């Protein structure tokens, strides 16, 4: 069930980017907080803030829908989620490594390759989410 939760968080992070929140809170990569240090710290803080926002959204969603209690024991779509998560983790690792190099050129080059990693991961995560949602049993409403 952890994979389902992580997959939903990654899907929300991709469908609803919240990097602008980091810019507002910190003043951006060249603002007063991150001005003299490596851009990797801005990228890490942006990722963590996006992760926290998406995690909060998914936590509220899972609590309200009680999704985990309605899923079968062997959840379909798990491998779709794992594949999508792996693509995203590979891309983020490469981007963070490239942002440690001064000048910004390598990170820019990695961002040019983003569609080749992130578009297939979105498709994999959406297919996994659809399979999970379709496998959930209906809510028993007592009238």
Walkthrough of the structure:
There is one protein chain. This protein has one domain. It contains 7 helices and no strands. The two termini are 30 Å apart. The model has no long low-confidence stretch (mean pLDDT 90).
Outline the fold blueprint:
Blueprint: H1 2-15, H2 19-26, H3 39-65, H4 67-70, H5 78-98, H6 105-112, H7 114-135
Helix pairs in contact: 1-3, 1-5, 1-7, 2-3, 5-6, 5-7
Summarize the structure.
With 143 residues, the protein is mostly helical.
Main attributes?
73% helix; elongated; mainly alpha; 7 helices; 0% strand
Structural class: mainly alpha
Q: What is the beta-strand fraction?
A: under 5%
Q: How many helical stretches?
A: 7
- Rg is 18 Å
Strand/helix succession: HHHHHHH
Largest sheet: none
